[in-house]
Amino acid sequence: MNIVIASGKGGTGKTTVATNLAWWAARQGLRVVYADCDVEEPNGHLFLKPELSWNRAVLQFFPEVDRGKCDRCGLCGQICQFSAIALLGEKVVVFPELCHACGGCVLVCPPQAIQEKADDLGMVEGGHSGALEFVQGRLKVGALRSAPVVHEVKAALPSADLQILDAPPGTSCPVVETIRGADFVVLVTEPTPFGLHDLKLAVEMVKVLKTRCGVVVNRALAGRTEVRQFCQQARLPILAEIPDDMSIAQAYAEGKLVVEALPWYRRTFARLLRQMAQAAAPEMLLRKIIAALDSIEHSSLENRPRSPIAVEDAPPICYLDFRSKIADPASKGTNPGRVP
Ligand code: SF4
Ligand code: SF4
C-alpha cells in the first residue's frame, strides 16, 4: 500500500507523522519503506538515522545546438511548450532551466542539429534504519526542477507492505508527482487560519488526483475547532489529532521519534494505520496489519498522561472516496470501516 503524507504548507508536522508511522509500523513486523520526497530539504534522516548503502545520480537532459548545422528554420521553438528553446534573430538560444527534456525539438530539427546533453540534477540514496528501508532524494543546490528527482525516488522504492512517502510541502508539481498513483493521502494540518487555508488547497489537489485521503491535525488545541468543522462539512475523516504537547516539541528538537521517546503516542499511530488500512489496503494486507496491531504489547500503549484532546477515541466521521461514491465506515459488512 502506497501512502503519501502531505500538507498544504510547511512546518505542520508532516515529517513527524511520516517518520513515526514508518518506524513504528516496521517495529510491528510489517515490511515498510520510508521515502523522503521532500527533495529540496529532506530531513526524515535526522529522526530515522539510516545507514546509507547506495546512491545514484539523477540526470536531466537538455538540448545543445550545433550552430554549424542549424539552418534557422525555427521549428524547435515552435514545438517547445515550455519556451525553453527559441530562434532569436539569427541564433537559437536554449534555456536549460525551463527544459522538460521531452525531446520534441530533437525530433523536429530537419538537419539534426540538436543533441541531448546531460546535466546533474540531484541524487537518490538509500539504506536501512533497523528493519525499516529508507530512500531519499536530494536536489542539487541551484537546480530548479525537483519533480524528476521525486520521480526517481519513487522508481527506486523496493516492494513492501507499506510504502510511506513524505511529500514536499504545498500543492506544486513535486507534490503532484509524489501523490500520483498513491493508494491513500494523509493531509497533515494545524488548527490555525493558515493551516486551514492550505488544507483546503490540498484537498482540492487531492480531489483532482482522485485519491482517497484523510486528515491528521497536529498541535491540536481544545477549543480550536475550525479544522474539525471544515472536515465535517467536506466529509473528510480526521484520522488522528496529535495534541500541542511540549514533550513532543522537545523530542523533535532533540531529533527523537515521538513513538520512541513518548510510547503512549503509539496508540495514535496504531489508530492512524488501522484506519488507512481499512480504507485502502488490499484484503490480505489488511489482515496482516490488523494481526500486527492486535499483537501489540498493551503495556506499550498504557501510562498515557491525561490529555485535553480526546479525538483519538472518537469514531471517524466518514471516508471521502474521490474514486467512487462516499461511503459510511459505520456500515456493517465483512470489513467494517472499509471503503468499498
Ligand atoms: S527537449 Fe522539449 S522541453 Fe526541452 S527544449 Fe526541447 S522541446 Fe523544449
Ligand atoms: S529546428 Fe534545428 S535547424 Fe531549425 S532552428 Fe532549431 S536547431 Fe536550427
CATH architecture of the largest domain: 3-Layer(aba) Sandwich
CATH topology of the largest domain: Rossmann fold
How many domains, in number, for the residues? 2
Regarding CATH, which class of the largest domain? Alpha Beta
Q: What is the number of strand segments?
A: 11
Order of helices and strands: EHEHEHEEHEEHEHEHEHEHHHH
How many individual helices?
Answer: 12
* Global outline: elongated
- Main sheet, how many strands, which sense, barrel? 9 strands, mixed
Strand content: 15-25%
- Structural class call reads alpha/beta
Query: Order of strands in the sheet with the most strands?
Result: 3-6-7-2-8-1-9-10-11
Feature tags:
disordered C terminus, 340 residues, alpha/beta, binds iron/sulfur cluster, 12 helices, Rossmann fold, nine-stranded mixed β-sheet, Alpha-Beta Plaits
